[in-house]
Amino acid sequence: MSPSTPPDERPLRADARQNVEQILQVAQDVFADLGYQASIAEVARRSGLGMGTIYRHFPNKTALVEHIAVKVMQESLAEVQRAVAEQPATWSAFTRVVRHMVRLRSSQLFPVSRGRAKEPGPELAAIRTQLLTALEDLVARTQRAGAMREDVTAYDVVLMLNSIPPRLPDAEDDGPTADLTDRCVGVLLDGLRAPGTETLAQPAPGRREIDQFFRTMYGL
Fold first, then answer.
1. How many domains does the chain have?
2. Would you say residue 153 lies in a domain?
3. What pLDDT shows up at residue 96?
4. In a domain, 44, yes or no
5. Which of 14, 47, 72, 144 is the most buried (most CB within 10 A)?
6. Which domain holds residue 89?
7. Contact 111, 43 (CB under 8 A)
8. Residues sharing a CB contact under 8 Å with residue 24, sequence separation 6 or more, in sequence order
9. What angle do helix axes 61-86 and 90-103 make, rounded to 10 degrees?
10. What pTM was computed for the model?
11. What is the tens place of the pLDDT at every residue in 93-133?
């Protein structure tokens, strides 16, 4: 399944493919801004497309959100691979990936109902495993280069990224509010740099804790 081909559909005509791409981009922004409680009606309003058009391609909100999650994780995996290839200074590669993932506001893009009737599809499970493996490798590379403190794991990083708040909504009376994301990322990165002066409590999170976190919070 490519990001522009909804599940269980054959390749789309050019106009239908354009509609799908528009739905995905708008929905990604809507769920990032408002969380999973945002309605399909809000996606339709912002996209200028009818509800029928959206439901023609995505039978329900869960299908739409899972499709976005696959798209975002594919983009993040590609960015990890590019950063490692293009920036031999490992800390630069790591910070590039962190800022990319925060820009995608990934913590707000995976919110699937806790009461799911079925497990996530195999494509979602596979890309998530690939991305976590790539992040583990990137953290290990950065630690071997002496740039990152040795007592943190890739799973620490994932949990920290999910703690950065989403973009603040605009205030109706006072105009746009400040985007504090870059400030939060700066504090996070400074805390991850070697050598680190604070002794961290044990145990460190691992894959089991990450799986439990995503399953409990987002149904993933």
1. 1
2. yes
3. 95
4. no
5. 72
6. 67-218
7. no
8. 3, 4, 64, 67, 68, 71
9. 160
10. 0.77
11. 999 999 998 887 654 444 443 344 455 678 888 888 899 99
